[in-house]
Amino acid sequence: MSFNQKHLLGIEPLAPSEITTVLDLAEQYVDLNRRDVKHADALAGLTQINMFFENSTRTQASFELAGKRLGADVMNMSMQASSIKKGETLIDTAMTLNAMHPDLLVVRHPHSGAVDLLSQKVNCAVLNAGDGKHEHPTQALLDALTIRRAKGRLHRLNIAICGDIAHSRVARSNILLLGKMENRVRLIGPPTLMPAGIAKFGVEVYEDMREGLQDVDVVMMLRLQRERMDGGFIPSEREYYHRYGLDAAKLSIAKDDAIVMHPGPMNRGVEIDGTLADDINRSVIQDQVEMGVAVRMAAMDLLARNLRTARTEQGVMA
Ligand code: NCD
Predict the structure, then answer these.
(1) What are φ and ψ of residue 132, in 5° steps?
(2) Which of the residues in the chain have pLDDT under 50?
(3) How many CB atoms sit inside 10 A of residue 22's CB?
(4) pLDDT digits (tens, 9 = 90+) for 257-298
(5) What's the pTM value of the predicted model, to 2 decimals?
(6) Three state DSSP letters for 94-107
(7) What are phi and psi of 261, to 5 degrees?
(8) Could you tell me the distance, in angstroms and rounded to a whole number, from the CA of residue 49 to the centre of ligand 1?
(9) Distance CA 93, CA 106 (A)
(10) CA 215 to ligand 1 center in whole angstroms
């Protein structure tokens, strides 16, 4: 088993074998999570602190459940009520928490790079739960596990990522992961929502959804991230839905067995038709949520093993 990371800050530093290690371990946790008694002790005695500086429903809930099911003491910091509001810097908050000896810090922050910076100041494993437009590694890993289970493999697939690519850390992490695993990734969206220079990531870019969806195995839809837009990126939601909203007619262009994904939260009738999102024959959106807990258990378990090894080595040297 190979997983040589101290932190999980992004997909970028991971080797394909490390990605496979996380997914294989997560499979075991999928089984555990389907039992009546969902307890293991991989994180027993460890303290996990969740710091979310941006709103979150499924990511925060699943990190909390993941930690609890593995026996960690889990604390959710309410960042709304924290001293950040009184002017304390992110680093001061981190140093304060560090003095309480956490073992795992799970951090979501609106600024790209903030989680990386924080990881340099603390003595524990840090997991990036989304930093600005940069990365969201556990989302890409849970998407990968969902795809692998639905398609029976995670290579040589045609995967379309559609919509607001420019503002999406989910898209970035997925482009990196799916590329490393040797899939063909297509990006579909209006030029205003396509990041400059994206072609160098080895993806194909389409403006027309009907062209881009031809022969794809997976259709991954993204939310229009209005909170990250500071102007008119789209003409109107109605027009956007007409051109880029996924409905049964547009999906019929993809392969007959193509699956539909969305990281949530979804805007029904903006980027996806509500009935299609609920169609259990095509949509794997609920599977993504289930895989999210298992993948986060696996990621924290692997990081905790490395943390313990590093501490033992330090103890031997001291
Ligand atoms: C995503 C995020 O926060 O980046 N949501 C999630 O984690 N499931 C995507 C989004 O907010 O649109």
Answers:
(1) 50, -130
(2) none
(3) 25
(4) 999 999 999 999 999 999 999 999 999 999 999 999 999 999
(5) 0.96
(6) HHHHHCCCCCEEEE
(7) -125, 155
(8) 20
(9) 14
(10) 27
